[in-house]
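Discussion board: Methods & Data

I've been asked by a reviewer to show the raw model output for two of the constructs in my manuscript, not just the figures. I'm not sure how much to include, so I'm pasting the format here to get opinions. Each protein appears as its amino acid sequence followed by a line of discrete structure tokens. Is this the kind of thing reviewers expect to see in a supplement, or should I convert it first? Here is construct A:
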Amino acid sequence: MSGTDASLTISVVICVYTEDRWEDILAAVASVRAQSHPARETLLVVDHNEALRERLLKEYKERQDVRVLANAGPRGLSAGRNTGIAASRGEVIAFLDDDAVAERDWLRHFAEGYADPAVIAVGGRTVPIWASGRRPVWFPEEFDWVVGCTYRGLPPGRVRVRNVLGGNASFRREAFEAAGGFATGIGRDGDKRPLGCEETELCIRLSRARPDAVLLIDDRAVIHHRVPEAREHFAYFRTRTYAEGLSKALVARSVGADKGLESERRYATRVLPAGVARGLRDAVLARPGGAGRAGAIVAGVLTAAGGYVVGSVRARRGGDSFSVAPVEGGAHG
């Protein structure tokens, strides 16, 4: 899989919901417009915030390569992404978080992955930008997914994976034609409880619809993701890991525990014990944060497990659910 198809057209979808991230949104769009493999278009999908939509329309009224849309579905990240997919014109649809900036060759590395016709999704590496200027000493790299970033335990290089990570990912258009869009009712909804796993559920569903499909992560496709100060605290860490457990229970109920927890088993039995051992070793050597990191890993596992149990009970009772709709529209070429 070498070389890049310079003619491959890529639409970039950025879902936005609050004016509090105005400068971040402008920076995200600017990073897309500076790509070495030019995006066909950038679609800003506004999640039920008319004031923000109007402001963005004024900001980009002179830019034909930036389109501003209203989320056509229920509030939340999944419906926003589905709106962007339906309106997009590219052969590939890439997703970038509204508080992240992409490195110049981000889309070029995605395009290289699609040189192999079997590849249907390519993700990248997401690096945290800590609001305080540096990683909190207690925060384990194994849990960087808590703040939407690539975590220790993912293999390096360009590798085949079960699922890509949603804030830095791309899919061929036919992925959505084969499997439908992102499930609503499972992912983020503005500032409410920080649920996730919508991209995991989609990727597993996609692999079932297209068993021959290849999903990749290329760690050269880098974005830098802002981590606000509020997310550097243990209270958020605990809330996010619990929410992940709730989300994983929904995914397992949808696609089965074998597939839904396949990668998590290796992570829990190999990556996390090694992280605890590393933290305890650092504590013995009087290195800062060692005991805190070991403790955070244990706490994260227990909290996520608690969320999974609660989520499983709710799912069996029918209290939590999500739905998948076909993604209409989209004209590529």
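Construct B, same format:
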Amino acid sequence: MNTRPVAAPTNATLLLLLTCAIAAVTLIFTTVDPWLDKAGILVGGLDVHVYRDGAWRILHDQPLYTEPTLRGLLYTYTPFSAIVFLPTNLIPWHYLSPTWLTLNLGVLFGCIMMSWRLLGYRFTGRLAAGSALLALTCTFIEPVRTTLFYGQINLILMLLVLWDFSREDRSRLRGIGVGIAAGIKLVPLYFVVQLLASRQWRSASTAALTFFASVVLTWFVLPADSRKYWTSTFFQSGRIAPDTHPANQSLRGVIAHLTHGPAPMWLWLLLALPVLVIGLVLATALHRNGERLLSVTLAGLTSCAVSPFSWGHHWVWFVPLLVYLVHRAQSNPRWWIAAAVLYFSIGSWTYHWSETWVSVGVFLLPPSWTIAPVLMNAYVIAYLVMLGAAALLIRRRSVTGCGDQHASLK
């Protein structure tokens, strides 16, 4: 069973979160000039403009995948996603980036509140205040900072998944969020496998049917783009970036980083498949032991690790992990150490190569540094540490359960 949660964050926790929030916001605006082109937090929004351009293309009967969009970037999401992004065309071009930034901040707050719900907390004003402070604190971790800067959709997809998993197992709506998220971006399909592994048949069926409906619906509306995507674009992983890119925080990226070349398919599968199975087994065991938040968080992180290519901003699943660590620290202050180590490991630390060229994230720190091989694969290392910690937690729960059962027999 879960450690019984307190009713809301304690005064000490709120004070600490307030300090962390102030420090995080200060770092956001001082480590990089907020108006610096291609790096400042207030002048981003490239990806959301790509989304908008994709939606514009289907409105004007233009091909979605054969021609580059803004700044020569290719559209890589599903045809269904372009339909989802249609409302962005209602927002004037110059207002889109700040509007999406504000939306993402609200969604970040929602993700944290949903994480508390998975831990059994009641929604109160005090919990909302703590969540707001934790949200501001999380703006400095690289996955969130980069999501906010580029105007990415990762936080919205995570909120859909968390909303699903926070519902009762028998809820008829459970699975719709996962299906919609997978319809937009395929990686959340992993959660369908996770639902099947934990024998949540109805939820898995609902998620799969929702995803299938998104494909069929879009095929009727956008037949040419759908045919192009599912028969060609879907298989072109090179449209994203080379395996060796330092921001590829996946097992395949680790192989490419260490071998300094494209990762062989056989070697990637040799590593990814066992990790996928281990992640499924541990997440299922956590769910069975009442650790609902930790279970879905581990699943989210596993989907990032085993994906062929995972940008740093895909790892927003570190956010609910930080919520879990704060939750455990409420009853055992030693968990603050784990939270601090994770936070510093995934912070958006910067390196100023020049006045106009700034890299953000530990994996983009100078490759000449002795510790570079570790930093370049930091997120996968953090994930593997979490796998080990999850296995240890499950083992302790099993031992405790056996001990309780033995005592009751006496």
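Answer (T.O., handling editor elsewhere):
This is acceptable in a supplement if you add a one-line summary per construct. For B, something like: The CA atoms of residues 248 and 311 lie 5 Å apart.
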